[in-house]
Amino acid sequence: MKSRIYSPSWDGYELIDLGGGEKLERWGNTITIRPELNAYFKPVLSKQEWYKQADFQFIEEKKTFGAWKNLTNKPAHWAIQFEELALNVCLKDTKHTGIFPEQRINWDKIKSFITPDKNFLNLFAYTGVSSLVARAQGADVIHVDSSKSALTRANENQVTNGLSGCKLVFEDAMLFMHREIKRKHQYDIIQMDPPAWGIGTQGKKWQLENHIDELIQNASQLLREGGILITSTYSPKLTAPTLHEIAEFVFPLKTIQTGILCTKSTTGKTLEHGNLLLVS
Questions:
Q1: Does the pTM exceed 0.90?
Q2: What is the pLDDT at residue 236?
Q3: What was the pLDDT predicted at 1?
């Protein structure tokens, strides 16, 4: 039996329906259609009903790359609200929007745990919603990503919200961890959202299943006593039981929770995003 962890819905975002390899989503007042590999079943609504609602559709050309078709002449850059934060949505040449809404469960965890006297290390941090959540609570934040465009968008999110002081680091996450271990630095919260595959700052190819053990081991050396580790994985080659087994070995005295990170559509469909590991 699959162990599913459902991320809560929120007003600024809605997964309306999914199926046929695509998903219909609302971002504030704007509705998009984009590819979704895990939507292998039939949608509840007809595609005609989808197109009646949609403002943009992503046309995939190569893997995640392609172009957004503007169906209603709306701006391709806008902001949505998550509690007190404004999150920038920007449609460019990939299917990604700059926000992973399923991460809302982790934003809630960070907000409930963080205080101004704590620090937060965000690895593979992308456009930085988790960093915003922590910084808005007054915590010291280090935001690490090997993509300059992701760091640019993370800074735009800071500026949009009138925040400053989040340290943006252009670095390979694994190399940064090694340096921090040598410096004997530690953190109250560490979040890791590593890609399934990719290329680092030094041109090295990355496959998550070959590095997950080392990532979690490194995190254990950087995590302060009483701290928490949040890890999301999107690799089909990694299962929740495997993550649980690794974490139990590395953190024998901590509480380990793992499961498949999911969201539910308004039409009642379940979308599985990947696996979630929480060490506390």
A1: yes
A2: 86
A3: 58
